Fold each of these.
Amino acid sequence: MPPRKKSSPLQELLTSEAQDAKLLAALLVSPADQVIASYVIGGLDKATAETPLVTTQRIFSHAESRAQLAQLQESVFYDLDGRRLICRTLMLPSLDATTPHLLIVMTTAEQTYRRSVNKLIRAIENATGSF
């Protein structure tokens, strides 16, 4: 059996917090469009599971969209199946002091999310020393 890849502390944190909050998916992306940590609930179809990454790539491929999102602090999108995609920017100076990271969370349309997302952001900031 090949050795198991060791996950990062941010990966473990994101997975734990996303599971506790019963999120469908969560993705933390660096300003350089690199996935730092991701979580997808089991049983989600491939196209739906890839939605946060596709959305991130669209945002980061357009500097204007990224700048607008940073000003808004939060954007919420709905898909045709009633799921909600929440995009939040967060500054993590210990990782990149000049450009915001992007956190994308997917929930059902009826699920409350603000408290869970705020808790997740605080946990990420605490873990990276960026509070």
Note: DSSP finds four helices and five strands in the chain.
Amino acid sequence: MKKAISTIGQLLLFLVIFAFGSFLHPFNLHWATTTAASGAVRYFIPDGLLLAVGVFLAIVTTQALRKRMCNTTWTVVAFLLAIAIGYALKLGFITQEL
């Protein structure tokens, strides 16, 4: 039960960090510019993804230093689920009309 609550908490943390970075663009990076047939420009803002990866690495490093590597599997599961949910919600994707 404790691992499930921890995993859900980490999932929510990663998802909130991903959304926060996607909406506020603290690094102001733009990737993968494409143009649609209607003339709209679509690109990806990776700021939320980079922030989520940074938090993920900080958690995994802390777990390694505390010798709690059995929890790392659940941290990876929470991270991958948060990224999948974020992409499904199209967090970070911006469309601008020309």
Note: The CA atoms of residues 11 and 79 lie 6 Å apart.
